[in-house]
Amino acid sequence: MTLKPDYDVIVAGAGHNGLTTAAYLARAGLQVLVVEKNDWIGGAAVSRELHPGWTYSNCSYVCSLLRREIVRDLDLPKYGLQVIPYEGGASFTRDGNYFAYYSDHDALRREMARYSPRDADAYQRYSQAIMRQCRFIRPFLLRDAPDPASLRPRDLGEMAYLVKKAHGLGARELGETLRFWTMSIGDFLNEHFENDLIKAHLAGSGIIGTGLGVYSPGTAYVLLHHYMGDIDGGIGAWGFARGGMGAISAALAASFETHGGTIHTGAGVAEILTQNGRVTGVALEDGKVFNAPVVASNMDIKRTILRHVDRDVLPEDYVRAVDRFKIRGSSAKLNIALDSLPQFPAAPDHASFLRGDMHTSESLPELERAYDDWKIGRWSEKPYIDMLIPSQIDPTMAPPGSHMMTVFVQYAPYDLAVGGTRSGENWDEAQRKAMAETVVNQIEIACPDIRNHILHMEVRSPAELEREVGLTEGNIFQGELTFDQLFFNRPIPGYSDYSTPLKGLYICGSSAHPGGGVMGAPGANAARNILRRETRAGRMKGYAA
Description:
Elements: E1 9-12, H1 16-27, E2 32-35, E3 48-51, E4 54-56, H2 68-73, E5 83-85, E6 89-92, E7 98-101, H3 105-115, H4 117-137, H5 153-169, H6 171-182, H7 185-192, H8 196-203, H9 219-227, E8 230-231, E9 234-235, E10 239-241, H10 246-258, E11 262-264, E12 269-275, E13 278-284, E14 289-291, E15 294-297, H11 301-308, H12 316-324, E16 331-338, E17 357-359, H13 364-375, E18 384-388, E19 403-410, E20 416-418, E21 421-423, H14 429-446, E22 454-460, H15 462-469, E23 505-507, H16 521-536
Parallel strand pairs: 1-2, 1-15, 2-11, 6-17, 15-23
Antiparallel strand pairs: 3-4, 5-10, 6-7, 8-9, 12-13, 13-14, 16-19, 16-22, 18-19, 20-21
Helix pairs in contact: 1-10, 1-16, 3-4
């Protein structure tokens, strides 16, 4: 007997990709339920007041990758989304100097020439190489990754599109593209620049959120992944969502609910229910059961399959492949309430780059040593930090005259080595405080008086990111962005179309193509595939009949 469904689709997890999937499906006229384990929505794209008067973007913290097509389709500005670009950034040195990265091309060239006239000339070639890669990859973000072993017409069509785009590059540029995707960011930068500080500043985007070092193959692509977004048409530009990153999730939720969607918070999925080889709904941790012929999981692939699905209903080789999928925690996060703006003595007064991302690493070898610490299970002695003070641009983040600082930290291991053991359970309050002390020491390179301004500090290790947000090992991309886990290999070869071997179960989070970041593309692509496959099969509208 077929169960009468409560909904056409249930989305597990109210992260930004889950909300994107839900919003598209609701706009198509389907009855959609989103279930979320926390009492708030947003997953890693969230704004929370954890100190009275201060709003923290306490996981993801800057916006660029969110696809403009999604913003337009779902009318997100109508629901309050406003993204404010920020201007450049800087790397500060221990001897009291700095390198400023300006958004203005001529100003940046002059700044580079201050360190190396040769690098000022090389930057044009470097930026052109990056933009060529961006132009090639961007059209694939909202397209399916074809299965090269499939003879299905859609896969053949997508393969033909890929071959056409690759052929259009020409033999030389195609070779450079394949080389770029498999090389390290360190090698790529060494080919273009000579100054250590310039290379260190640019290298950060190649390692953020990744269990790899600057000399690890594949990190050049990670840099590209951070460059392929845009703000107001400015390719590679970054900005702050007014009100914090939760404004993105709030706009998505409002768009979803306007079209009849329902959000159930405070209880996560305990089990994805199945019968005769297909999903029938979900059982929640609070005991509630909801029925639907389709479940789209915004959780990562490992959490979805290994924790919430009965393994007996899945092929053994598929489960093994999921178990091999690389999700490694390498990042931590500090959110700091400041009573006023700290001093940056190396910088000119009111320097525009202070309103951007600031760093304190001085060379590629220093960054590689930070990675070496992570490999043996400890946080970096001299970590790479990505530090911003968004309240300079968005005054809603803090009370008048006060500020909010967000600090992304690389590297911090999930499996922390303590007393001869390596485990995520080793992250206790004492370890978090000790790591935070190391990070604040790095911040002092840029602003020596930072400790005098701290009113409150939230410290999040990879263990907190896993426990609170649901990111396995705290990996912000829901899986490494290495060449073996991209395109038709993401997440599992043969299942790049967001499906699984269990009929009616789809993956809509960042474990799927095209990967992590607050992009929305996996969610939009999953919705498109669900609509095409499930409505055509008649398993949603009219299902009960």
